[in-house]
Specification:
The chain has 155 residues and is mainly beta. Helices cover 0% and strands 51% of the residues. The chain contains no helices and 14 strands. The strands form three sheets. Strands 3, 5, 7, 8, 10, 11, 13 and 14 form an eight-stranded parallel β-sheet that branches.
Length: 155
C-alpha cells in the first residue's frame, strides 16, 4: 500500500519536496520548470532588460534567484520582481542613475534573499522586501528600502 507523504513545497519555479523518516527512509526531490529556478547574468557590462545579459537568454521571472557573478557589471534599467539576489565577488549591480528603479525581492524563506559579496550601487533606486528578508554580505547602503516581510534576518 502506498503512503501519502507530507512535505515542503516551494512554488518559485522550482518544486522541492522532502519526505522525512517514515518506515526508515528519507527522500528529497527537486524539479525545476521553464528556464530554471536561477537566472545567472553573463559576465561583462550588461543591462537587466536585455535577454543577451542572461545565460539562458531569458529575463528573470518572479520567484527566481538572480545571480550577478564576479566580472559582471549589471545596470538595473527596469523595475522587476524576483525571488532572491546574489551579487558575487567582484560583481556589481547598479540601479539606473537616470530613473529611480524598484527591485522587489519576494523571498520564500528557503535561503538568503539578498546577498552582497560584490558591489551594490543604489543611486535613487528602491529595494522592496516582501515575503521573508534574509540579508547577508558586505556593507550595503540602501537609498530607499521597504520591508514588508514576515521574517527579517540581518547578518
Amino acid at each position: 500500500a502506498s503512503k501519502e507523504p507530507s512535505g515542503h513545497m516551494s512554488t518559485a519555479r522550482a518544486i522541492m519536496w522532502t519526505q522525512t523518516a517514515v518506515d526508515g527512509w528519507d527522500a528529497t526531490f527537486s524539479v525545476s520548470g521553464g528556464s530554471g529556478a536561477v537566472a545567472t547574468a553573463n559576465t561583462g557590462t550588461r543591462d537587466w532588460s536585455s535577454t543577451a545579459s542572461w545565460v539562458d537568454a531569458a529575463l528573470p521571472t518572479t520567484g527566481q534567484k538572480v545571480v550577478i557573478p564576479a566580472s559582471c557589471t549589471m545596470t538595473l534599467d527596469v523595475d522587476d520582481e524576483i525571488g532572491s539576489l546574489d551579487i558575487q565577488g567582484s560583481g556589481t549591480l547598479t540601479s539606473e542613475a537616470s530613473n529611480a528603479r524598484v527591485l522587489t525581492i519576494n523571498g520564500t524563506g528557503c535561503g538568503t534573499e539578498f546577498n552582497n559579496d560584490g558591489t551594490f550601487n543604489r543611486n535613487d533606486g528602491k529595494i522592496v522586501f516582501s515575503g521573508n528578508a534574509d540579508i547577508e554580505g558586505g556593507n550595503t547602503d540602501f537609498n530607499d528600502v521597504t520591508i514588508s516581510a514576515n521574517n527579517l534576518s540581518l547578518k
